[in-house]
Amino acid sequence: MALQMAWQQTHQQRRKAPLGLRNLGNTCYLNSVLQCLCYTPPLGQFCLSSQHSSRCKNWAVGGEKECPFCILERQITRCLSAEGSLEAPSKIYKCLTLFAESFRGGRQEDAHEFLRYVIDACHNTCLKLLSKSAAGKENASPGASGAKYGTVMREIFRGALLSQVKCLSCKGESNKTDEMMDISLDLFQSFSLNDALQPLLPA
């Protein structure tokens, strides 16, 4: 999956500052997450090219309800293409439970929790689409539909933490790699990302 890691020059010239999002009633958490997602270059570029919706056509969810990724794609496209300075994320707000079943409109919620719900909902939708697509191919290889990391959300947001133990006597090494989708960082007295990451790095 080829992702564009930087904005195209045409987009950089079009908008100098991020688009503001209207507060629809305790939606600060939702707005902050949407702005972060909108201005994540590979995701923004992916949505602007309509790569998901052009293949989905509500196929991934069997036509029973709307597709979370299609909704997010439309929202990001509007935010990145709008000529004004303010946008209301009404559609995502109305479909809040499609992303996070326990969330309700008008309530204050946690931004980090909502971000994980959005990523997971879009990732799962992509997996369903891959499964449907593979099932429609006569020569689909076993397991092709369940490619664990074969979705745009995992390609962008997944990371790996490598833990290494090295024997000082024999110089042997034992390595363990754990998948992660986020890192908890202590921001107190951290003046840069590198400062916040230092506790995770060996001395």
Automatic annotation (TrEMBL):
One Gene Ontology term from the biological process aspect of the record: protein deubiquitination
Gene Ontology cellular-component terms listed: cytosol; nucleus
PANTHER family per record: UBIQUITIN CARBOXYL-TERMINAL HYDROLASE, UBIQUITIN CARBOXYL-TERMINAL HYDROLASE 36
Gene Ontology molecular function: cysteine-type deubiquitinase activity
Reaction(s) catalysed (UniProt annotation): Thiol-dependent hydrolysis of ester, thioester, amide, peptide and isopeptide bonds formed by the C-terminal Gly of ubiquitin (a 76-residue protein attached to proteins as an intracellular targeting signal)
Hydrolase is among the record's keywords: yes
Protein name: ubiquitinyl hydrolase 1
Start and end residues of each USP domain: 19-203
Keywords from the named record: Hydrolase, Protease, Thiol protease, Ubl conjugation pathway
EC numbers, comma separated: 3.4.19.12
EC class name: hydrolase
Family: Belongs to the peptidase C19 family.
Pfam families: UCH
Organism: Dioscorea zingiberensis
Segments forming a coiled coil: none
InterPro entries: Papain-like_cys_pep_sf, Peptidase_C19, Peptidase_C19_UCH, USP, USP_CS
